[in-house]
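Pipeline run #58 for the internal structure catalog. This entry was flagged by the ingest filter as a single-chain record with no existing model, so it goes straight to prediction. Upstream metadata was stripped on purpose; only the residue string is passed forward. Reviewer on rotation: M.T. Logging verbosity set to normal.
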Amino acid sequence: MNNVKNILIVGVGGQGTLLASKLIGEVLVNAGYDVKVSEVHGMSQRGGSVVTYVRYGDAVASPLIDAGEADIILAFEALEAARYLPYLKKGGLIITADQRIDPMPVITGAMAYPGDLIGRLKAQDIRLVACDALSAANKAGNARAVNVVLIGILAKYMDFPAEAWEDAITAVVPERFRDVNLKAFALADTVAD
């Protein structure tokens, strides 16, 4: 089972974590991998934390990822990247939007949003790509396409051609949103290192 790779997708309800997992899963299945996806919705309808697990390899028994096992964390919001840092394996990669979305305890004044999350993540012994995915999504024509901008960045760290990702977007995304998402995928180059 040491050939199994793990991707943890984290965000806030409404950011498209489930679509991201479907796109990744489509690419992996088309490449011939055994793929397991587990969607943990949490408080997705109320802006709460949402987590999706994607595991792939020759044979994958369980869809769940334990702490210290994620090869990649794809985070749609900086606080979620920090919250799930314990799931990253040594030498793993975090790809995160630098966007801030206040959780309910911050909105109600019960807690303060932690300062300098990207700086704190950079201080960890991890590989980190933090970017302004929101600006690229806006350029593509829809702020909600942050998820596909981040998929575009993820694609650079996986061994599949751009066409495989574009085919997955075409297959999975509803037609009325397809062009915006293809543009968002292409614009990942403008915000990533």
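catalog note: The beta strands are 5-12, 34-40, 49-57, 70-75, 88-97, 127-131.
catalog note: The two ends are 32 Å apart (CA to CA).
status: ready for reviewer M.T.
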